[in-house]
Amino acid sequence: MLSIRAADLSDANRLSLLAETSFRHTFAASNTAEDMDTHCRNSYSEAIQSAEIAHPQMLTLLVEDDAQLAAYAQLRFDHAPECVADRNAAEIQRLYVANAWHGKGVAQSLMRACLDAIIERGKKTAWLGVWEHNPRAIKFYQKFGFVEVGEHAFPVGSDPQRDIILSLTLKR
Fold first, then answer.
1. I need a surface site. Which of 35, 54, 93, 139 has the fewest CB within 10 A?
2. Full-prediction pTM beyond 0.90?
3. Where is the secretion signal located (predicted)?
4. How many domains does the chain have?
């Protein structure tokens, strides 16, 4: 049975493994091995995940299926890019589902939990960056009502890639 909960420090190791595995599965074919290794080393270590879990302006949500980690999302509450009109918006920094749970409604449940958590923090806008060459993710976010408001560079190793910035005004 699926459950969604906030991560705690004891989850850092499992989260680190899922984060790197998910990122590699999604983007390895489009990047060099060196850039992937650099990005993963600089983004998904257990120490980095511990710091992000403990950060007061972040929230990490985990989806578990009988204690097995199925998906995760990380929210940031401390900044928004210039193209997002609401300067007090919250970012959905990461949202990844492990392969075994693709197509089972996990991403939709996790997204709803993210939006609920953002509203609970008193935010009125959610934003995120999505790689311009990830049409599946773009379509997923658009189904929730996200609209394009800008772009930014997202470095994967030495490769600055273009992310489309999407924003959503939340309804209480």
1. 139
2. yes
3. none
4. 1
Give the closest residue to 108 by CA, choosing from 77, 73, 135, 83.
Answer: 73
* CA gap 82, 160 in Å, rounded: 19
The residue segments making up the domain with residue 137 are 2-169
Q: How far apart are CA 17 and CA 140, in angstroms?
A: 24
Q: Minimal CA–CA distance to 9: which of 45, 73, 52, 66?
A: 52
111-115: long-range contacts at Cβ-Cβ below 8 A with a sequence spacing of 24 or more? 111/73, 111/140, 111/144, 113/4, 113/61, 113/73, 114/61, 114/73, 114/75, 115/144, 115/168, 115/170
Sign, Cα dihedral of 16, 19, 24, 25 = positive
- Average pLDDT by stretches of 10, the chain with 172 residues: 94 94 79 81 92 97 93 95 94 94 93 97 96 92 97 80 93 76
Pairing of strands 147-156, 90-97: unpaired
